[in-house]
Amino acid sequence: MTRPRFNRILLKLSGEALMGQNQFGIDPEAVESLAREIIAARDHCPGLCLVVGGGNIFRGMAAAAKGFDRASADYMGMLATVMNAIALQGALEKLGAETRVQSAIPMASVSEPYIRRRALRHIDKGRIVLFAAGTGNPYFTTDTAAALRAAEMGCDALFKGTSVDGIYSADPKKVADAKRYETLTFSKVLSDDLKVMDASAVALCRDNNIPIVVFNVRQPGNLAEVLAGRGVATIVQ
Ligand code: UDP
Fold first, then answer.
1. Domain range enclosing 190
2. Under-70 pLDDT residues of the chain
3. Is there an atom of ligand 1 within 6 Å of 14 CB?
4. Is 40 part of any domain?
5. What is the DSSP letter of 127?
6. CB of 35 sitting under 6 A from ligand 1
7. 166-211 confidence digits (pLDDT tens)
8. Were 150 and a residue from 96, 128, 158, 193 both cysteine, which residue would form a disulfide, CB within 3.0 to 4.6 Å?
9. Closest residue (by CA) to atom 22 of ligand 1?
10. What's the 199 CA to ligand 1 centre distance in angstroms?
């Protein structure tokens, strides 16, 4: 086993990671393959917790643009993240992991409420904790929830799974000589408005010295490789 570089990380997965090849919803195969990636990651990092987005089901801002009340739409978006967390929990447990879902909007029949000290204890015991319902507040995103929970859980890093293998100087699909950054500073990400995570999430990580590791979550084995210090990623610090 490779010596861990990280003892505890928070993994942020957008809802889209659960869609697979579909345009909407939850694809069981995509969820199962994510669960395998997460389990493999544990060989390199004993403490794992997750924040799952909800964009594969419902996004508050997009719904508000079509006429929904923004705060109500955001609550619907937060409920979507609970469905995703429960789907991922099921897949992880099928593969033998012990998990807990903690929801920022109390939902006693399907999850624990978010209780920081209890979540810390679960992680200490080797359970994978899935944080659902974002921050519990409208007008936020699950990126900000990820930064917040990473700080609260004392994580060494926030791993942001995307569909590209890091942060580029330009869109690599459009610009042939776009260059991938190995490392970037928080201030460069904020001043150049690089679309990594929203600005409040980046600022929260900066203020709490939590590096953001941007990596491709769609490439099998990559999360474990990056945790082992070998994979391709961009580190914002
Ligand atoms: N949301 C919210 N407060 C939060 C986190 C999320 O209101 O703290 C709502 C918001 O409407 C958002 C939706 O939940 O659009 C789904 O989250 P997000 O868009 O961050 O999911 P992702 O893009 O990561 O799939």
1. 8-236
2. 1-4
3. yes
4. yes
5. P
6. no
7. 999 888 888 989 999 999 999 999 999 998 899 999 999 999 999 9
8. 158
9. 53
10. 14
